[in-house]
Design brief:
Number of helices: 12
Radius of gyration: 22 Å
Low-confidence stretches: 2-19
Oligomer: single chain
Strand content: under 5%
Mean pLDDT: 83
Structural class: mainly alpha
Helix content: 55-70%
Distance between the termini: 52 Å
Number of strands: 2
Strand order of the largest sheet: 1-2
């Protein structure tokens, strides 16, 4: 016997709703993160992929075609940072880290706000790279042929140094992700992991000899400025 159409519709919507709902045994903060993840997921996936792939051609084009680069001076702090090639995975993890605030965006407004912040930082940095090209000194770094570090040194040369977009993206992501974790009531250890991840990426930029202190400070200032600006705007827009 065929069930009534209304019953069939009800059972279909009920099954799809249960598939999208987090398991009941999850703690509230983890359930909140799950709901954020599934919201607008196809848009988040496509948008983040297109933005990441579109960034690199423009970045490398400016590196190749900008004028003569000014070599940044070293500071005493640079001499204290040892060359640690094993931190390369931490350095490269930025591209997974920066996707987290996109994945955890609660709604379209939050998604657009983070995306526009990243776009504005990128545009500002690219303008500096074009009109005031800089480069780090030619460090005598030994790399094993065929390794990821050698590939990085060949592809991402010493140009486009100041400000460090790697650092500004890390800081901006840390601020946005901290706001999202606090909103769902995430535990303190997870919020500490967020900060430690950002600090690790910032330090790795110097440890793998991709940046020096001056451009790290420039990237830090850029990331903090945009992080504070978007945080104040989000707080003002939040309902009472």
């Amino acid at each position: 016997m065929t069930p009534p159409a209304s019953d069939a519709t009800s059972s279909t919507s009920s099954s799809s709703s249960s598939a999208a709902s987090p398991p009941s045994m999850l703690p509230p903060w983890l359930a909140g993160l799950w709901r954020r993840c599934i919201t607008l997921f196809p848009l988040k996936l496509v948008g983040n992929t297109v933005a990441t792939l579109g960034f690199f051609p423009l970045y490398f084009w400016i590196m190749r075609n900008a004028g003569q680069a000014w070599v940044l001076p070293l500071t005493p702090i640079d001499g204290l940072v040892a060359f640690w090639p094993w931190l390369l995975p931490v350095y490269l993890s930025l591209w997974g880290y920066i996707a987290l605030p996109v994945l955890l965006a609660r709604d379209m407004r939050e998604l657009v706000g983070f995306s526009l912040g990243c776009a504005a930082m990128t545009l500002l940095a690219l303008l500096v790279f074009w009109f005031l090209p800089t480069a780090i000194p030619n460090f005598a770094v030994e790399t094993t042929p065929g390794t990821s570090l050698q590939f990085l040194k060949m592809v991402d040369s010493a140009g486009n140094a100041f400000p460090s977009l790697h650092v500004s993206f890390s800081v901006f992501t840390c601020v946005a992700l901290a706001r999202q974790l606090r909103a769902v009531g995430a535990p303190a250890w997870l919020r500490a992991v967020n900060v430690a991840w950002a600090v690790g990426i910032v330090y790795s930029t110097m440890a793998v000899r991709q940046h020096v202190l001056i451009d790290v400070l420039g990237g830090l200032a850029l990331g903090v400025a945009f992080g504070l600006a978007t945080r104040e705007r989000a707080a003002a827009a939040a309902p009472a």
